[in-house]
Every structure is written in C-alpha cells, then in structure tokens.
C-alpha cells in the first residue's frame, strides 16, 4: 500500500476520475508504459486538480486511494518533460502534494523572510 511504495509516479495529463481499478490499471500499462506493482504508486488527477486517485497494488490485489481537499487544489508537478506521460516524485513530495501544500509559495515566503530552504 502507500507505506510500502518506493516509487511514486504522477500522470502528466488529467483523467476522468470516474474510472476505477481495471481502467486505471490499463492506463498505467498503455499510457504510462508500466505495470501496476507493489513497489509503486500511480497518481491521477482531474482537470481542475481538486481530486486525486492513487492506484496501488499489494500481495492480494489493487487498491484505490481517493482524496479531495477541503479547499484549494493539488499542486501536481507542472514541469513535465516534453512527451513524458508521467513524472516521478519523491516520497516526501507525495506527502506535500496530498496535504495540498503549495511548495512554490512556501519557497517564496521563506525567501522573503530570509529563512534557509
């Protein structure tokens, strides 16, 4: 599940979040060029970035984690290499993303206050 994952990937384009297990797994295979596996999480978001779904696998099958922020939007990676279907992020970036923290605004505020990164 989320705790066991070593690799975290964010899909570079929004999807219809009404999709469920089989279709999300197919997107991982066909569009992201990977296979749903126990050591990886695959994150999908809607166009407005108000909801995310995470597809994960454990020994007994697939899991879907679904989150909606109370307010604001998820700060999914916007700097995507040309032609990339997914972006790999670090585990700590996933925690920040799921909390809805705007890292760019945080970095700007720290810089304005003269605080170290």
Properties at a glance:
alpha+beta; 3 helices; 117 residues; globular
Give me the secondary-structure topology.
Blueprint: E1 7-11, H1 21-30, E2 40-45, E3 51-58, E4 61-68, E5 86-89, H2 91-99, H3 103-112
Parallel strand pairs: 1-2
Antiparallel strand pairs: 1-5, 2-3, 3-4
Structural notes for this entry:
The chain has 117 residues and is an alpha+beta fold. The chain has one domain. Helix content is 25%, strand content 26%. It has helices spanning 21-30, 91-99, 103-112; strands at 7-11, 40-45, 51-58, 61-68, 86-89. The chain has a 5-stranded mixed beta sheet with strand order 4-3-2-1-5. It is globular and about 50 Å long. The termini are far apart.
In summary, what is this structure?
The chain is of the alpha+beta class.
| Strands in their spatial order, largest beta sheet | 4-3-2-1-5
User: Biggest sheet: strands, sense, closure?
Assistant: 5 strands, mixed
- Roughly how many Å apart are the termini? 31 Å
| Helix-strand makeup class | alpha+beta
